[in-house]
Amino acid sequence: MRRPSFPSPGPPGSPAPVRSPGRLALRAVAAVAGLTAGLAAGESPPPDAARDAPFPWTRFLAEAFPEGTDPLRARRPHTIREPGPDTANYPNSPETLPRGAAYLETSPVFWTSAIGGVQPSTYNAEFLVRLGLTDRVEFRLFSSGYTWQAAGFGAGETTGFSPLTFDTKIHFWEENREWFLPAVGFEAYIQSPWGSPAFDAGTQPGMTMLFRTTLPWDVVAEWNVGLAADSTALEAYAPIVVAQWAFTKPVTADFDLFVHGFQNESALPRLAAQTVIGGGFIWYPSDRLSVFGNWGAATDRSGPATTFQLGCAGAF
Question: Residue 225 pairs with which residues in a beta bridge?
């Protein structure tokens, strides 16, 4: 059985085909009808078609908004493996989702022990929503979610919802291993005051350069360098230099181990301290789902004695 095909653009200089909503809807219905008829006739689908086939609305976006140097990327199957989840470790990857793809990353278990002289122990259930706007630009919505903070430093026990953070990531170029050039991206976010008053830190921006390169023995190195708000400052905004890093080694085709750390703050505004290091894992039970966990600890008294995270991410 052949998969539904899409019209190719005409020769250079020819007018672009008209893509009205009605025509696109008819094409979508025809594609579904052709697929159903083929299966009814006894034709077997390609291997892993049920697992890997993109959702119809992804094909709709690819047809309605062709773009980029690789216009077929959004029509190809996408998986949670490329790119992997960003919240599994401290740095963020320079890779973005293909146009129309979506990730939901959530960590229902995120524990941070008391940070000396800064804040008491906290528990939160964070989430990150990612949407590929183009093949190089990704929209992201992050929050530490439901948050519980123990009593301490003159304040009682507190629960509420952490502020929303609006984020975007841009992929500049892919890794060039022949010239030893890393993959490069850029991320910028604004932490809003939209959350429970107890956790309102005002409007705080941040920006980071993202890098990734492949080392010998298939070790993948990711590192970020940027500016963020100093959460301990009394001023409305005091910028500080932040850095995050991770070294990931595939153990099997579905299981990775990594060590990671950060200086001053993690890539997303969720952990702040001086120097934190730790390790963790990422497991891919399928191409649509990943499960991850990590542990970290501060190397000085200015950071948390322990952080523990357990979460999962799904591709849609």
Answer: 209, 243
